[in-house]
Amino acid sequence: MAIRGAELLQHQFDEGLYGEAEVLALAKALSIQHLAEAGILHSRAGKVRLLRREELPGDWDPSTVGRLTVWEVTQHLIRRLDQKGEKETANLKAKIGGMAEIARDLAYRLYTLCERKGWAEEAGYYNSLVVAWPSMASEAFELQ
Predict the structure, then answer these.
(1) What is the C-alpha separation between 78 and 127, in angstroms, rounded?
(2) Is 2 exposed, middle or buried (CB count within 10 Å of its CB: 0-12, 13-18, 19+)?
(3) Could you tell me if 3 and 71 are in contact, meaning their C-beta atoms sit under 8 angstroms apart?
(4) I want to staple 28 with a disulfide (CB 3.0 to 4.6 A). Which of 2, 32, 112, 125 is the partner?
(5) One digit per residue, pLDDT tens: the chain, 144 residues?
(6) How far apart are CA 31 and CA 122, in angstroms?
(7) Residues ≥6 apart with Cβ < 8 Å to 128
């Protein structure tokens, strides 16, 4: 998500008010409806929350998504790395293309934010993507 971690800093993955989320989304030319359709946000009864990585579809294919968000790409890369390792994540990175680099930058920023907030477990996921990146970058390059 192009919001660059603002929503994570406010609510992490807990529910927040729809109106607050809409203001953040509109500031980045997004909409709550688009984020819900992208499968990264749940919206109901005036509340919204970002979906946790384990709630994301395991068979996600970026080529079938009309408009990718950086948040979505970052979370799927982390999920793939956690569940299937570096080689499979490199395959996904190759499919994503240039947005993968932006996702890595977001992961680094979110790692820093989580560290400041004392969210060690969440920080670890973002850090794992950043640390594995050089190895995955060479693997993805070989796949192209």
Answers:
(1) 10
(2) middle
(3) yes
(4) 2
(5) 344 444 445 556 767 777 777 777 777 677 778 777 777 788 888 888 888 888 888 888 898 887 888 888 999 999 999 999 999 999 999 999 889 999 999 999 999 999 998 999 999 999 999 999 998 877 756 655
(6) 25
(7) 78, 81, 82
Q: State which H helix or E strand residue 49 sits in.
A: strand 47-50
Q: What's this model's pTM, rounded to 2 decimal places?
A: 0.80
Residue type, 115: E
Helix and strand numbers (H, E) in the chain are 6, 3
Sign of CA dihedral 133, 137, 59, 18: positive
In the numeric block, which tokens belong to residue 77?
């890369």
Q: How far apart are CA 143 and CA 93, in angstroms?
A: 10
